[in-house]
Amino acid sequence: MSVKGKFVVIQMNRIGDLIQSSQAALDLKAQHPDISITLVARREFAAPLSFLLEKRFDHILLIDKEEMLKTADDSLENYLESLEALIANPRLEGIDVAINQSFCQTSNYLMSLIQAKHRLGSYVGLNNAVVVKDQWSQLIQSMVMGGPDCPFHLVDIYKNQFGIKERAIWKDASRHIGTPRTLALHPFASQDKKKWKAQKWTEVLIKVLKSSPSFKVKLFGAPNEKEFAAQILDNPSVQKYGSQIENHVGKLNLEQVFNEFKKCSHFVGHDSGLGHLAKEAGLASLTISLGTVRPIETSPYGINTFVLAPKTKCFPCFPDTQCNFFQCHADLSYQAVAEIIIGFVGEDDINYADLKKKVSPFHLDSLSIYRFGPTNTGWYALENIGDGVSSTKETFRDILKVALTYKMEEIEENLSLPQVNESGFRELQKINEGIEQLYQLCEFGKKYSKDVLVEISKEAPRIEEVKRLGDKVQEVDQLMDLLLKAYPELKPVTDFYKVVKANLHGDNIVDISESSYLVYNDNAVLCSLIYELINKTLAASEGSQKKSKNTKEGNA
Amino acid sequence: MKDEVVERLKKIEEKLSQGQTLENKDFLLLFGLSLLKDKN
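^ inputs. structure came back:
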């Protein structure tokens, strides 16, 4: 059934985020062509991408802060007038659904100014507190903003925010090869934490070009990355292979970059807007994830996507985490990355068995190699194509994904049970103890919420008793915080619960208590799903460990 | 402009501390200020 309506999508973030919002909008338009979507974005990021965005949104409303400030001429009244004019734009009138996909303070306030019948995503309430009512936005508010353990890709979350059920129409078949063995390389990123130093890229480039004379490398980047590019290209050893390199850094606008990508076959780079643009051009891509990058959330969305990530304990970190040493940069060796690129461009694949023959285990063991693509549900997941053993973090992330997908959308996702080693086995057992205790706390929460309702429904409710029960509910929440100290892995689950609980429906004690009961119930269901999945994983691993032990004993 | 902003923000804070709710003009100011603070 086709739906009509006026939607507004607010995306105030950078180029990569705009592309990801547009990818979700593409699916929404494909399923409901009669929906009109207006994008509200900042001029500096959206204008260079207009060649792409105009195909996916019906209207684009650009916010030009610099222009507004210039016009204001240091007068607050003038500045506010220009903001008022922006809000009074006819494109923002008669809105059925306003959707916030940037979750920043600016977009939260903008959401509150737009009169819409329905709001999805965060906005600021009349008491200046942030409100998030829909469950997928609650997931963003907790697991993405609180990070880094969100098990979903942002585009999948945006699609769920839109309520898109059918996933089969995504353009997975579009693979483009302009010129075979032509690599688009973007060795830059917006933050130092997210990119290697020039020296390391120089080593990679030398090794790749030396071993593969048939490769061409096109280097891309923004004008402010010219100096960094020069540090790579001015190296005498790189200059030996000058005939294989084309330097486009700082010379092209985004549309020209996109057209140039179309002449390539593969893309390699750090997490950046250009990585998403390369996927739009249909290139196979390999992302080198470092620092704050969360591969599951922000990898370029589409098939033929690979991701390299360090196994460093603190990876991924937060933008404000102080770090001078950049251990995660060191854990990805140039030798391993160069060999992976050679296979990726030359053979159009990453073959772990081949890599093991060519790269020292010392370099290979400190990184994870993922293939990123859709599962049976059409939602995207990371598949570890390395040594076959998943870390506890990866295992718990997959389990959380399967449990949340079922709980929130009643969709069963068929991810294969991960293989865990002995230490992972013990860590999962410990997490399950925490889940069991969290389940029990939810049951207490349910009981006390229900008791409040029973007391209120009496002919003469005792206010003292209602207050006592309310205090008990609070105690349950405090105990959850204590539980988190013992079981920090439960953070995504408890964070999600906290955001849902902070946004209870209702404005009287009966509705709020009912809503509170339902939240505890939901969280208890989530805990039982996770508990069951962990047990299944443990049982499968126990079986395979016994088998391997017997084989070893037999061989002995 | 800065002094005027500080004055208007004080009024908003007062309003909230007295349990009053925000009006459209307050949201507009807060949106505008937040936009100014955004990094490019």
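The CA atoms of residues 16 and 22 of chain B lie 7 Å apart. Helices of chain B lie at 2-17, 24-37.
thumbs up if we can close this ticket
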